[in-house]
Amino acid sequence: MEENKELTASNYDDINAKWDACIDLSLRRFVYSSLAGAFGGFIFFRSPVTRWASVAFGAGVGIGSAYTDCSSIFGGYSPKLAPPKLDDAPAPKDQEE
């Protein structure tokens, strides 16, 4: 019974560590991407609307990249897909008319 308690305690610690890493990653990417969007908007655009749009785009890029990395941290899908194997592809059929 003591072993089961230790395993569950280590699982909780592991999940807490994953959440901490994910929240830290999300906040950093959101802030840095928003700042990069603000800087780019200040340099390239004159209208306040387009400047805010570049900030929003930067924030979206930051949240999207953080979501991708967090899902791989929690054991979801891998963001890096393997190239398809040529052996698995079906052979093309010759069409004779």
TrEMBL record:
Q: Which UniProt keywords apply?
A: Membrane, Mitochondrion, Mitochondrion inner membrane, Transmembrane, Transmembrane helix
Q: GO terms for CC?
A: MICOS complex
Subcellular location as annotated: Mitochondrion inner membrane
What domain of life? Eukaryota
Q: Which InterPro entries match?
A: Mic10
Keyword Membrane appears in the UniProt entry = yes
Membrane topology qualifier:
Single-pass membrane protein
Q: Describe its function.
A: Component of the MICOS complex, a large protein complex of the mitochondrial inner membrane that plays crucial roles in the maintenance of crista junctions, inner membrane architecture, and formation of contact sites to the outer membrane.
Which PANTHER family does this entry report, sorted A to Z?
MICOS COMPLEX SUBUNIT MIC10
What protein family does this chain belong to?
Answer: Belongs to the MICOS complex subunit Mic10 family.
Q: What is this protein called?
A: Mitochondrial inner membrane organizing system protein 1
Name the species this protein comes from: Hibiscus trionum
State the organism's lineage: Eukaryota, Viridiplantae, Streptophyta, Embryophyta, Tracheophyta
